[in-house]
Amino acid sequence: MSKKNVNKQVNPKKQVMDNNSKATIGRVLKLIRPYSFMVFLSLLLAVVTVGLTLYAPIITGKAIDMFGGQDQVAFSKLYKLLLTFLIVVAVTGISQWLMAVVNNHITYGVVKKLRVNLFNHLQNMPLMYTDSNPVGAIVNRCISDVDQLSDGILMGFTQLFTGVVTIAATVVIMVILKWQIAIVVVLITPVSLFVAKYIAKKTYDMFILQSDTRGEMTSLIDEMVSNQKIVEAFNHQDEVKDQFSNINIRLKRCSQEAVFYSSLTNPCTRFVNSLVYVGVGLVGGLFAMGGSLSVGTLTVFLSYANQYTKPFNEISGVITELQNAIACAARVFELLDEKEQEDDSRQMDLTSAVKGDVDFKHVYFSYIPELPLMEDVNLKVYPGQRVAIVGPTGCGKTTLINLLMRFYDINRGSISLDGNNINVLKRDAVRHNYGMVLQETWLKHASIRDNIAYGKPDASLEEIMEAAQAVHADNFIRRLPDGYETILGEDGGTLSQGQKQLICIARVMLKLPPMLILDEATSSIDTRTEIHIQHAFARLMKGRTSFVVAHRLSTIKDSDLILVMDDGMIVEQGTHEQLLAADGFYAELYNSQFAVS
Predict the structure, then answer these.
(1) How many other C-beta atoms lie within 10 A of the C-beta of residue 29?
(2) In terms of CATH architecture, what is 358-594?
(3) Residue 201: what pLDDT?
(4) Which has fewest Cβ within 10 Å: 149, 170, 429, 444?
(5) In this structure, which CATH number among 3.30.70.330, 1.10.8.80, 1.20.1560.10, 3.40.50.360 belongs to the domain 3-336?
(6) What digits encode the pLDDT tens for the residues 325-376?
């Protein structure tokens, strides 16, 4: 990517900086507000540290003035000054340590609260957000961007406070000692501030682009690692390497530019600081030659020239780090500002046991407003019915499940559960009555016992074992090193896909909900085990309303109702025999699976 193209990508971010950077800083300060006392304590310790640090050169200057010539050294006074100097150094060290402890408490307290807010916010986000955003980008904002923000806050408290206090105190003391020399220092100072401000403005845009590109890289790595088998199975390694290389090159370029601009700050300010030192030396030397300034006091001024200019170098580095922190904070707050799903705490709860009566009336739904999917869908499911949902890939089967579970809310119409519109019911009340087994398994990093009891945490071990036996998972679980207490790795660790699916089915068997949703629940299980599980499912589905998504039509012939979907619409519905007799879309699908060549 050329530098010209990089700048083109930066411009929109620059506008965001102009409009929102102050608001972002305000929100960061709002997070710090509960630590007001700690901030005051940190500022007080900074004043103590700086005051003692600036007092040390005065002691040194006085000690130098004790040397009046050969055999003219006031050793008794010199020893007292030395003792005072040692006490000042010791107290300064303790003060700096306490300030570091306080600053760490503030910083990591803020980071802890921010991460808790982010995680809680993600739990309340609509499914549409996580469906439409890369997982890696979300993870990057919660971890990497928050880390960058914490580094900026820590540097701000540790170096910004002491730097500002040092500059102010140094100027005051120099004015008291010799205001003429102080004027020289103050006149050169704006040059350093101008340089730091100019460079800091340049770095912000590149840090924004760097953060975004880093998130893109995290997303790619997360996607490739979690799907490594598929990548290798289709020999896609070279394409993935090229994709990673392209992102890496862009990250390298924007990072280099960010580092280049930020690295200019230190040498530029050091050059200006050298001018301050030279100015103090020349003017102070003239006063010393005139007899109006002692050698010791000139030494104090030269020491103060270094003390005064050093914070500018530190502050310039802090400003660079703060620019990066603000850029990351803007991304974090952007996630926090994403609209949560509507609060349903005041909505109705189900007061009686669910029978399983489901009614779709004139339902309209689309993921994207410009692309209609479901239009005027009507469906009546009676309690205890076994409903099969079939159709080609992308026809809307999963969408129908999403609407039943209120993962997505419909645009128009109504969906009723036992006569209650689910849009006025609490989501938990709706979902509590469903047991769900998907084709894609999900197991958390915990014991097998905890994974099976995920929907019923208070279940006893006996109940868990009975559920596992019902789905023929008990045998392989007992063969594991720690049986039901075996800790599974990420997404099931080394278990086979079929074993993972059996644990997910056992989870539903344990909960025994009044309604079931089975989305190709036995797709990864061998035929012999599947027969046993189908019998277990038959017992489980008896008297329960069940929605079964199936691609193998032979498994749903005994369903009470078969819904045939295409392009988001229910194009046919009826029993197996009725649909075959109609000789329509279902008959075509069925015959295509069992056609004899």
Answers:
(1) 10
(2) 3-Layer(aba) Sandwich (3.40)
(3) 67
(4) 444
(5) 1.20.1560.10
(6) 888 888 888 888 888 888 777 778 876 778 889 999 999 998 888 888 888 8
